[in-house]
């Protein structure tokens, strides 16, 4: 018979083992378990912004690849994506469906400022991550009031600050004319430009806004030319960016012409004619898959191989495909950092503590950095000039840190 002392030791050892087992148990919130993680998404597969539907298709393909590779820490991604037709009321309906019916772990990279604005308060009230959303509006970096919402791409104010730094360095006395879209996007970019110029904001001598419902911005370009500006800033979406390039050429005008990043994909510029676009400027944080300079780059090779296998019908030169690949890679990295603590709170904690993270699509020197008070993952950009049918990067990498 075992002694009383021996039995006490056995009991104590059993208690320690039980405690260690409890401590080692995985932690889960709704939408995650031992075998899968449900990720929701809202994309405009129909409607006026349906061209961006490729982003949702890319995510589905990317997560299929991840699942075939064994998932994330052994868990498969169950990707559920719905169409909102770029309609805010429809986005609200789809967000409720994803959160309350599908019970997703998070809503990832939903597209557009209007749609994300419509669901932001709902997502934060439910404490469900609205993570790495697909819009550059600066308001997504407000952890104090919206701790469950975080953006990804450079915000528009950061982009505006980058242009200001470039102009002050290379064209310090130039008179600036600005064409901007009369919404959050255009106003954000303009604010960033003015903030970046600081005491030199008086260099902006002409501003003209247009409505997205206007069929053409030709009259606005004529007006800005008449203002005798040296620099034309086209803070526009792709359709109007191409129109501004074409009209400037038709007028025989030769300003320093800067177009916004979201209008700078080769596929967006092509309708304006490459002959008309020679020498225009923009900024970027990502490589261009259409640029032969990157054909042997390991990251672009991985992207190309992925596209060939999983979405062979999609356009590799469309900036949206490369964007979607990069942001999906960031989500996988962030979830992997969660380990076995798959709570929504931990997902946001990891997203808010990314340090010098690199990405296959980033230009050399561009890195993701976040903190609990900094919800702007990418704030660095480099200037680029259109030469022939591709962009050539030049100069320094500028930090467009908002508030910096």
Portion of residues in beta strands equals 15-25%
Number of extended strands: 14
Task: Return the average pLDDT rounded to an integer.
Answer: 92
Helicity level: 40-55%
Derived from helix and strand composition plus strand pairing, the structural class reads alpha/beta
Global Rg = 24 Å
Shape: globular
Domains (count): 2
Which topology of the largest domain does CATH recognise?
A: Rossmann fold
Number of helices: 13
Can you tell me the CATH class of the largest domain?
Alpha Beta
Please write the string of helix (H) and strand (E) elements: HEEHEHEHEEHEHEHEHEHHEHHEHEE
How far is it from the N-terminal to the C-terminal residue, by CA?
74 Å
CATH superfamily of the largest domain: Response regulator
Instruction: Sketch the major β-sheet.
Output: 5 strands, parallel
- With strands numbered from the N-terminus, the spatial order across the biggest sheet is 3-2-4-5-6
Low-confidence stretches: 13-23
In the CATH classification, which architecture of the largest domain applies? 3-Layer(aba) Sandwich
């Amino acid at each position: 018979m075992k002694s009383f002392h021996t039995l006490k030791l056995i009991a104590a050892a059993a208690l320690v083992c039980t405690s260690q087992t409890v401590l080692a148990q995985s932690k889960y919130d709704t939408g995650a378990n031992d075998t899968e993680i449900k990720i929701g998404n809202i994309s405009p597969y129909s409607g006026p912004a349906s061209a961006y539907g490729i982003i949702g298709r890319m995510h589905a393909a990317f997560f299929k690849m991840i699942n075939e590779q064994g998932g994330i820490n052994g868990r498969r991604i169950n990707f559920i994506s719905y169409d909102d037709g770029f309609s805010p009321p429809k986005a609200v309906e789809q967000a409720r469906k994803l959160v309350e019916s599908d019970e997703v772990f998070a809503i990832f990279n939903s597209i557009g400022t209007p749609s994300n604005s419509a669901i932001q308060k709902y997502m934060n009230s439910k404490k469900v991550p609205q993570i790495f959303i697909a819009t550059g509006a600066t308001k997504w970096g407000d952890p104090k009031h919206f701790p469950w919402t975080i953006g990804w791409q450079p915000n528009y104010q950061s982009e505006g600050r980058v242009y200001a730094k470039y102009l002050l360095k290379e064209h310090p006395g130039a008179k600036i004319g600005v064409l901007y879209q009369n919404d959050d996007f255009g106003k954000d970019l303009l604010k960033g430009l003015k903030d970046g110029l600081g005491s030199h904001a008086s260099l902006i001598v002409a501003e003209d806004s247009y409505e997205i419902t206007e069929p053409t911005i030709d009259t606005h370009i004529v007006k800005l030319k008449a203002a005798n500006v040296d620099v034309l800033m086209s803070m526009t979406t792709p359709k109007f960016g191409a129109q501004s390039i074409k009209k400037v050429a038709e007028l025989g005008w030769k300003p320093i012409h800067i177009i916004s990043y979201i209008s700078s994909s080769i596929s967006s510029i092509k309708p304006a004619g490459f002959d008309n676009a020679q020498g225009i400027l923009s900024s970027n944080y990502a490589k261009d898959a259409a640029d032969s300079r990157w054909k042997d780059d390991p990251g672009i090779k991985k992207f190309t191989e992925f596209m060939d296998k999983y979405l062979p019908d999609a356009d590799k030169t469309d900036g949206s495909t490369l964007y979607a690949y990069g942001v999906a890679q960031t989500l996988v990295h962030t979830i992997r950092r969660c380990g076995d603590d798959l709570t929504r709170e931990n997902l946001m904690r990891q997203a808010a503590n990314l340090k010098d993270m690199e990405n296959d699509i980033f230009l050399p020197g561009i890195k993701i950095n976040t903190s609990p008070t900094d919800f702007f993952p990418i704030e660095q950009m480099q200037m680029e000039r259109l030469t022939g049918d591709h962009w050539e990067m030049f100069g320094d990498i500028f930090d467009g840190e908002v508030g910096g």
